[in-house]
Amino acid sequence: MTRDLTIKLHNTATRKKEDFTPIDARNVRMYVCGPTVYDRAHLGNARPVIVFDVLFRLLRHVYGPEHVTYVRNFTDVDDKINARAATSGRSIGDITAETTQWYLDDMAAVGALEPDHMPRATQYIPQMVAMIRGLIDEGYAYEAEGHVLFRVRKYAEYGALSGRSVDDMIAGARVEVAPYKEDPMDFVLWKPSDEATPGWESPWGQGRPGWHIECSAMAHDLLGERFDIHGGGIDLQFPHHENEIAQSKCAGHGFANYWLHNEMLQVEGKKMSKSLGNFFTVRDLLDQGVPGEVIRFVMLSTHYRKPMDWTEKKREEAEKTLRKWYLQAAEAEAATPSPDLVTLLADDLNTHGALTECHRLSNAGDTAGLRGALKLLGLLDDLIPEWAAVQALDLSDVEAFLSDAHATAMETKDFAQVDRIKTALTSVGIEVQMSKDGVKLTPPPGFDRAQLEGLL
Ligand SMILES: [Zn+2]
Hints:
With about 450 residues, the protein is α/β, with parallel strands linked by helices. The protein folds into three domains: about 10-260, Rossmann fold (3-Layer(aba) Sandwich); about 265-390, no CATH class; about 395-450, no CATH class. The protein is built from 15 helices and 15 strands. A four-stranded parallel beta sheet has the order 4-3-9-10, sandwiched between helices. A four-stranded antiparallel beta sheet has the order 5-6-7-8, covered by helices on one side. A three-stranded mixed beta sheet has the order 12-11-13. A hairpin with a 4-residue loop joins strand 1 and strand 2. The longest helix is centred in the first third of the chain and has 21 residues, at about 45-65. The chain is elongated, with a radius of gyration of 26 Å.
């Protein structure tokens, strides 16, 4: 446990970067809103997963792996799932089971650790019903035509997370008007189900939960009255997170102390959309041969609170850089993240700075530091990924490697890495010539290629 390190996080609720103080350092608790399972995760869906995975890893590093509890839910009851079942002719259970597994596989491929708990909404119906019942009893919710609605105006703090008033939010949002609502802002806690729609017995008839209540019920059940961090994409801030807060607070729960939101993802400067033809899933990229580590690297190169732009150029650069780093890290005897790296991550997850630190470690030839950094960032597990493993090193690989290092050094003005490689090559009798035309290596007569292994 690294007790002398203070993690700083930008809390959306206060709009300030704050020192993070857990309620209980022996059990640091985090909840992140997960996917609705009816289709493959698109690239944008991977961003919160990777962002909060970095935070999860940092918390585990600082407080100890056994002292962190991370919950991320699966929404497996939703009208989009029902619609998918209707159009495909498949059962809801099949669709949600299949897409849940897809999600887990795709997120594992981008290096995300599995959270400690991954509750499914359908497993928490009794807890949701109990919570809704309590809200009705206290006058925060009402039943109307088989629906139960939350009375938004009854919760004076509504809008505090987004820093907007209820009236501003009505003006800016698509609020569903329905005859059974007392106020257009009121949102659904429970709704009736017909024969063809999944439904559960409730005091308000056969029905199903609205979306928001599940997170409040599951967070309470798994993390208690009050927990430390609640995360999600900025698109969830309103209405989903405002509604979660309203329900939980009115049910008498403390709910979350720190709110973190990641910004959205674009592709080549444009919003990803099916109509623009730039829509793709994580699986599409993996199938095209883009390694999961490369996807993760590109995501980490932009701070989570800035909009991120996925570009082909970044993908190429990331792959080149990771190949080089893995080659170096393979030679490391230990994995020790540098204190500087941890400090950077502790500063509101400065992942961009952390990657710059990796460049520095690489240039300095600090292979143990580099390996430790890659490990903490989730970019390297115990084995060098197969795609980057150098099977038979030959001189042209080394020439390319040295020429990359030289190009980097020209930018950073740090030639330590270049000098280190040159010294290593000279030590086995290889003549190194570097000119504007590139790198030329001349081995001594009878040179054994095996001498290159482990040299760099
Ligand atoms: Zn949620």
